[in-house]
Design a protein that fits this description.
4-stranded antiparallel sheet; 15% helix; 9 strands; 125 residues
């Protein structure tokens, strides 16, 4: 009878421990590194005309996120502040060939992500 009780206690304890073991954090609780998806934007356009990039989704770190654009004459953002992890912003290149221009993304803890944007001419020379 004692063996049965001991096995029951061990089984319950094991079940509780396994059930409370998480998967490694949520996308905005600070347990994951600040990141973006896609991790960079590389666009091509005829003669480097205007080009709109994909939606860039932010996650990890601790939201909200602030996006700093050091070259607003060449790149525009549909927003420079993203409230929640999993939310996104869009980059538009304003008609200039860009080798690589960084955007700087900060979370509320001051962690920084350097996000690269480029635009190449896709017309044969």
């Amino acid at each position: 009878m004692k063996t049965k009780k001991l096995l029951t206690v061990l089984l319950i304890t094991t079940t509780v421990v396994l059930a409370s073991c998480g998967g490694g954090g949520n996308i905005g609780d600070g347990t994951l590194t600040l990141a973006a998806s896609p991790s960079k934007i590389e666009l091509e356009s005829p003669y480097c005309n205007y080009a709109t990039g994909p939606k860039v989704t932010l996650y990890g770190g601790v939201p909200p996120y602030t996006i700093k654009n050091p070259y607003p004459a060449y790149i525009t953002l549909d927003k420079d502040y993203v409230v929640n992890a999993g939310d996104n912003f869009t980059v538009t290149i304003r008609g200039a060939c860009l080798t690589t221009i960084p955007l700087f993304i900060y979370d509320s803890n001051g962690n920084t992500l350097e996000f690269m944007v480029s635009l190449k001419n896709n017309v044969a020379q």
